[in-house]
Amino acid sequence: MADTTQNFANHVRYDPAFHFFLIPVMGVTIVSAIVHLVRHFSLGSFWWLVLAIAGLVAIGRTRFYALRVQDRVIRLEERLRLMSVLPEPMRARIGELSDKQFIGLRFAPDSELPGLVKRALDENLKLGEIKKAVTNWRPDYSRI
Q1: pLDDT in tens, 117-143
Q2: Residue 72: how many CB atoms within 10 A of its CB?
Q3: Cα(134)–Cα(142) distance, rounded to whole angstroms?
Q4: 120 neighbors 101 (Cβ within 8 angstroms)
Q5: Eight-class DSSP state of 96
Q6: Which of 120, 111, 103, 119 lies closest to 85, judged by CA?
Q7: pTM of the prediction?
Q8: pLDDT, tens only, 13-52
């Protein structure tokens, strides 16, 4: 659990091992491999650069895959929540929401959800606009 109450201003989450260790280490490794390749051009130096770039791509893709799976879970959770919270006429429009809109709506409490869903659909609100429109933030401390 977080030390402070989550809100729009502080909800972005950083993973120290990923953002402050892996990415910088891979960046330095790539720069080092480029410098070595320029100074000592050889097939081996070129291959080290390729491996460094491959490592960065692998780390990035792994992070991307985890976030995409989490987005799918959020979409499923929010669909279920909307089915139980929205009045009958609005339920028929759940399928019109985009994945990003579902992700933004997860921060809205049940009491704000019907009005915010209507606005999101009618005004085609983007993710950030939905999050800013939430009055009483419903925290999500589980986001990767």
Answers
A1: 999 999 999 999 999 999 999 988 887
A2: 12
A3: 19
A4: yes
A5: G
A6: 111
A7: 0.79
A8: 788 999 999 999 999 999 999 999 999 999 999 999 999 9
